[in-house]
Design brief:
Elements (H helix, E strand, L loop, with lengths): L1 H30 L2 H8 L1 H9 L2 H23 L2 H23 L6 H18 L1
Length: about 130
């Protein structure tokens, strides 16, 4: 039963972390060139603009859910499974989500890498 809980925690980590990554990336694209804004208006302007973007706060909350899911996953499963599986499958999910939601170009090398990562998780899980 603990293994089922561990895999459920891994799934929640992947979902929450990917959601957080996509929301934060979207927010920072809305902020614009941080380096230029920093030079022109200073650090407080960068922080203010990021915090004024609603998707930024949602992204931070999603990352918080991912962190606490990791804690639960570590209490139910082995470190040698939970951390690598959640990190590598988050990589795969990020590539898919970046393509779908952010309309980023994901090259062939990244897709091959994602497939190899997913294959590694399968080998690790059996």
């Amino acid at each position: 039963m603990r293994e089922i809980y561990a895999w459920a925690a891994i799934a929640l980590i992947i979902l929450a972390s990917t959601t957080g990554d996509i929301l934060l990336a979207y927010s920072m694209k809305r902020v614009g060139d941080v380096g230029e804004l920093w030079k022109r208006s200073g650090m407080l302007a960068v922080i203010g603009r990021a915090l004024s973007t609603p998707t930024f706060a949602l992204g931070v909350m999603a990352m918080g859910v991912a962190f606490y899911s990791l804690l639960f996953g570590l209490s139910w499963g082995n470190l040698s499974l939970v951390v690598p599986a959640s990190a590598s499958l988050t990589f795969v999910a990020n590539a898919i989500a970046a393509r779908i939601f952010l309309h980023e170009r994901v090259g062939r090398r990244r897709w091959i890498a994602a497939l190899l990562v997913a294959g590694g998780v399968v080998l690790m899980a059996v």
